[in-house]
Amino acid sequence: MATVDRNTRFCCDSSFLHRRNIMSFKSFFMFMLLLFTIDRCLSEDDHEMEEFLKREYSLSKPYQGVGSSGSSHWELMGDAMVTTDYIRLTPDMQSRQGAVWSRIPCNLKDWEMQVHFKIHGQGKKNLNGDGLAIWFTKERMQKGPVFGNMDNFTGLGVFVDTYPNEEKYIEAQKKRYTPRTQRIFPFVLAMVGNGSISYDHERDGRPTELGGCNAMVRNLKHDSFLFIRYIRRRLTVMIDIDGQHEWRDCLDIPGVRLPQGYYFGATAVTGDLSDNHDIISLKLYQLTVIRSRKEEEEEEEEEITIPSVDNLDLLRSGQNEEGMSGIAIFFTVLFSLLGCIFLVVIGLVVFSHWNENRRKRFY
């Protein structure tokens, strides 16, 4: 009898061990499947992307590729000057403008530009200006009013605007800022031009901007960075200005269509107010993205020749909606209440006449 019990216990133990092994195998299989799924998701989010530094489109110390010779990759313009530590687009002096432009057109489909810059000067808050811009445009080496570049440009401009011109515009229109519309300067914004869109200097580019964010970049003791990525017709701008080596989102716009073969550049301008605008480095990375055959065929069929942004009117209408002031809200509520009271009174009068006529029919 004891032998039977021992055999029974052995069979039960063996069956239990077998089931436990099966459960362990299933758990291990599910764990590996989960890891594989997460890895696939991360790969899809990153578009299985690799990046490569393109030195011919980049600018960094000791700036050997900058000059007026035909063999140089970058060319200076205006008041810009080269030092051992930076390229100063403008000094902290009035009415100056300078630029540095790439000589080689960029034919990359997907790219990422990392800008290391510094803006500093003697002027106190709102007594400095005007800012700098990073460009990817069809035109190059053209002086003008848009941060030292031409107006009605063709391509992309990302602006670091340090002076609030719109305050004067608002005062002239006898309007007031609302918490929804007021901005804190310096302010980073992006704009896509097709050759016929003008930058509204008085309103700090608000009517034509794609989006933006405030960025307190003046007179910082640590480095300032601007990140511009263009991938799969999506424009992303981020900033790193807190000295924490962390990118902060500024704008992310899908449906941005930029042709290839444009030029990179950086410009700056001063007016009655001034600042030192320094470019320390411009590093361009080629992004290698794996596309499906369908995506490649669609992109080949739709050749981009003019810069544009999908649903631009809808985007701007959402951004340019101005909130009502406190007085406007007060009168809106007041007239709404008066209108309701008026309708109630009219209703009571009509009901009273109807009820009186109804009683008369019974006599």
Tell me what the structure shows.
This protein folds into two domains: 45 residues; 270 residues, Jelly Rolls, CATH 2.60.120.200. 28% of the residues lie in helices and 29% in strands. The radius of gyration is 32 Å and the shape is globular. The chain starts with a helix and ends with a helix.
Short key terms for the protein model shown above:
8-stranded antiparallel beta sheet, Jelly Rolls, 363 residues, 2 domains, alpha+beta, 7-stranded antiparallel beta sheet
> Which radius of gyration do the C-alpha atoms yield?
32 Å
List the helices and strands in order. Answer: HEEEEEEEEHEEEEEEEEHEHH
CATH class of the largest domain: Mainly Beta
- Measured as a percent range, the helix fraction is 25-40%
Mean pLDDT: 82
Say how many strands there are.
17
Number of domain units: 2
**Shape, please?**
globular
List low-pLDDT spans.
Answer: 8-12, 33-47, 320-326
What is the CATH architecture annotation of the largest domain?
A: Sandwich
CATH fold field value of the largest domain: Jelly Rolls
Biggest β-sheet strands, sense, barrel:
8 strands, antiparallel
Strand content: 25-35%
Task: Output the number of helix runs.
Answer: 5
State the end-to-end CA separation. 110 Å
Would you tell me the structural class of the helices and strands?
alpha+beta
Membrane topology: Single-pass type I membrane protein; Single-pass membrane protein
Pfam family, one: Lectin_leg-like
GO molecular function: D-mannose binding; metal ion binding
InterPro entries: ConA-like_dom_sf, Intracellular_Lectin-GPT, Lectin_leg
